[in-house]
């Protein structure tokens, strides 16, 4: 896999974690996790390369930052060389999700939880892309069919992405188009859960 593919993975996982996957946490938070299996498609001249991947998202505990209690989360990807673990701090209050990329970040990024989205809702992701919810539709993947999934268009920098996110905040599919006409597609299905 080329190094050009790695930024897409980082953007995908930061977006998924920014909005906040639902995992209940308590004293045993270090054991809570969500696990996904999927594939990354990298179109080539003749045929697309397909990389099987696995993503494990877990809550490692909680921390108080600036007087607020945040979940300390990490996602680890296998099957994509060069993809480092992605860490994030997040908390929810009603339908609002607050995220910090580090303990030192002055103000959290604020967004609505997908369960509160509606067509036309716009927000900016941590990576700087501006996303607008376009519709709700069914998505058929290899392992399962997801119903009433939010479809959104995101733009920023060198890329435009179309993303599909469930109401309980699982980003199951992303198609990214770069200005140089490269296209990457990432598809994930939940394969395990604890906590």
Description:
The structure is a single chain. The protein has one helix at about 5-20; strands at about 35-45, 50-65, 70-80, 85-95, 95-100, 110, 120-125, 130-140, 145-155, 160-165, 170-180, 185-195. It is mainly β and about 200 residues long. The chain is globular.
- Give me the secondary-structure category: mainly beta
The proportion of residues in beta strands is over 45%
Helical stretch tally:
1
| Main β-sheet description | 12 strands, antiparallel
Mean pLDDT: 76
Principal-axes geometry comes out as globular
Topology readout:
Elements: H1 5-19, E1 33-43, E2 48-65, E3 68-78, E4 86-93, E5 96-100, E6 109-112, E7 122-124, E8 130-140, E9 145-156, E10 159-165, E11 171-178, E12 183-194
Antiparallel strand pairs: 1-2, 1-12, 2-3, 3-4, 4-5, 5-6, 7-8, 8-9, 9-10, 10-11, 11-12
Summarize the structure.
The protein has 195 residues and is mainly β. Helices cover 8% and strands 56% of the residues.
Which terms would index this structure?
single chain, 195 residues, mainly beta, twelve-stranded antiparallel β-sheet, 1 helix, globular, disordered N terminus
